[in-house]
Write a structure and sequence with these properties.
heterodimer, A: about 130 residues, OB fold (Dihydrolipoamide Acetyltransferase, E2P), 4 helices, 9 strands, B: about 450 residues, Aspartate Aminotransferase, domain 2, 7-stranded mixed β-sheet, 4-stranded antiparallel β-sheet
Chain lengths: ~130, ~450
């Protein structure tokens, strides 16, 4: 296992189990492998609309699995510039490929320094005991 | 138990209740024996007048249709005789199958893609539909047609009361030549979530909704079509045909007794793409691991027992037993039977409108076409008129919209397949005679 366990080192993490990855001037957001494993089979992802404002630490959407429904929390503040509409018909992508095909939203950050306050892959792996 | 919770006397548990109200004297009459009590209750019950005793022309949201005796018999089956879906619902395959069939019938009746297993009643269905539209559009303002039943409009107010939602209601007035209503589209702005219309409206008018859905959608809002008299769907276009996004109905007309105003069941359906925002329970058909047909509660993550604070509703429940009654009624009547109920109700209303409209001092205010009820201008104050007809053992109708200016001399009358022509002639004679009395 590389440093950071199974969690890629090219991005940051939240204590609420979201990941956030810089991509050009935007950030891509999804949930971690640990989170999808805890949730079980994901059946629906409710996402915001392009143009919506999200606020760090506040809910931006809801994820439903066969056993529960949970809020999705924005790692940073900013404007939603894209949502993964593939998840409407393929919510299982979040289970199968949480770090790539299972991405949820892209954000134009309001403050680019917010990212550094989030967990590194090592810190996150430590938190989840991997 | 007192020792376990740390008190000595039961009275200590009630010490927070103010002393003067803690142990009120009830001043009850002397106790009766069971025999005496049952006689007393029977005497009290004899003072009631039932729609089976006197001719009934009362509508306005509750309709005296005939319910085949098999409906009551099926609802009385102990296997169904529980108002609640059990908490391990899949154990009760029969209940879930009945719910699934109910939903299928509701979809067909309302012309929509997906339905829930009912809500409390027609009024709360409209309230839920409004909340649903607000979630879907992320807008707040609600436009209600003034011709939606006033009680239903009040229920919508109650549903949104805590959120200071802007509700606009189109103006309705009585002019020389009949009822006038402001166009609802004039009230729609770019923060409007939904436009709510009733079909037929509360005055009985069958509205021309052509083009309304497109115009509402152009402004980014949703169209909610609510039905109070569900038998009308035997002959009229469905809400789905009119392009509704959410359709609701009161189910009472479909085989449920009047029973003093409820319990009844609210029908609620929507376009399939909005199913995630549809409140309430939804029964689904599936296959077990051996491929046999079975039924489950589905999409439960929308519901309050899983996501309380994000549930689509925390103030709804299915009226399962009543929905089963409606299922029995619709299954027994079939499309042909329902069409016949509607055709007869309409024919009787048409006959009555011709005769009442010809009486001196009376006029039919509801524009044509109407379905089975209409608003009548009366030459005398309506409360007085109703009272005079009660003396002649006729339940004349609803003195309409009491308190609203211009409606003091209007009576809403409704007709069903149960009204005979001699009953209608009796109503006409009584109206003519009552209006000749000095007042």
């Amino acid at each position: 296992m590389p440093a950071g366990g199974s969690n890629p080192a090219d991005r940051r993490y939240t204590t609420e189990h979201e990941w956030i990855k810089p991509e050009g001037e935007h950030y891509v957001v999804g949930i971690t492998a640990f989170a999808q494993d805890q949730l079980g089979d994901i059946v629906y992802v409710e996402l915001p609309k392009v143009g919506d404002q999200v606020e760090a630490g506040r809910a931006f959407g809801v994820i439903e699995s066969v056993k529960t429904a949970s809020d999705l929390y924005a790692p940073v503040s900013g404007e939603v510039v894209a949502v993964n509409s593939e998840l409407v018909d393929q919510p299982q992508s979040v289970n199968e490929d949480p770090y790539d095909a299972g991405w949820m939203i892209k954000i134009r950050p309001a403050d680019s320094t917010e990212l550094e306050k989030l967990l590194t892959s090592e810190q996150y792996s430590e938190q989840t005991g991997e | 138990m007192l020792r376990t919770i740390g008190v000595e006397r039961v009275e200590q548990l009630f010490e927070d209740v103010p002393p003067d109200t803690r142990y009120p004297s009830l001043e009850l009459p002397p106790a009766l024996t069971e025999l005496e009590a049952s006689r007393h209750l029977a005497q009290l019950a004899d003072q009631n007048v039932s729609v089976t005793d006197w001719p009934c022309f009362i509508g306005g949201g509750a309709y005296n249709h005939y319910s085949p005796s098999a409906v009551g018999h099926i609802m009385g089956q102990p296997q169904f005789y529980t108002a609640y879906t059990p908490y391990q619902p899949e154990v009760s395959q029969g209940t879930l199958q009945a719910s699934f069939e109910f939903q299928s019938l509701v979809c067909e009746l309302l012309g929509m893609g997906v339905a829930n297993d009912s809500v409390y009643d027609g009024a709360s269905a409209v309230g839920e539909a409004v909340l649903m539209a607000q979630r879907l559009t992320r807008r707040e303002r609600v436009v209600l047609a003034g011709s939606v039943h006033p009680h239903w409009r009040e229920v919508v107010q109650t549903y949104v009361a805590a959120r200071e939602v802007d509700i606009a209601t189109s103006r309705v007035s009585i002019e020389e030549d009949g009822l006038r209503e402001q166009r609802v589209l004039e009230l729609v702005d770019d923060n409007t979530a939904a436009v709510v219309v009733q079909q037929p409206d509360v005055f009985g008018h069958v509205r021309d909704l052509n083009g309304l859905a497109d115009a509402v959608h152009e402004r980014g809002a949703l169209l909610i079509v609510a039905v109070a008299e569900a038998t009308s769907l035997g002959v009229l276009k469905s809400p789905g045909d009119w392009g509704a996004d959410v359709a609701t109905a009161e189910g009472q007309s479909l085989g449920l007794p009047l029973q003093f105003g409820g319990p009844w069941a609210g029908l609620m359906a929507c376009k399939p793409e909005y199913v995630r925002q549809l409140p309430g329970r939804i029964s689904g058909q599936t296959a077990d691991h051996e491929g046999r047909r079975g039924f489950v509660l589905t999409l439960q993550a929308r519901e309050q027992h899983i996501r309380r604070e994000k549930a689509t509703s925390n103030i709804c429940t299915s009226q399962t037993l009543l929905a089963i009654g409606i299922t029995a009624y619709l299954s027994l009547m079939g499309p042909t039977g329902l069409r016949e109920v509607a055709r007869q109700s309409h024919a009787k209303a048409t006959y009555a409108a011709e005769r009442i409209g010809a009486l001196p001092g009376f006029a039919v205010l509801t524009p044509r076409p109407f379905y089975n009820e209409f608003l009548v201008r009366t030459p005398v104050p309506t409360f007085e008129l109703r009272h005079r007809l009660v003396e002649r053992h006729i339940l004349a109708g609803v003195p309409f919209l009491s308190g609203v200016e211009g409606f003091e001399r209007t009576l809403l009358v409704a007709f069903t397949e149960q009204n005979t022509s001699s009953e209608i002639d009796g109503l006409v004679d009584a109206l003519a005679e009552a209006s000749r009395w000095p007042h």
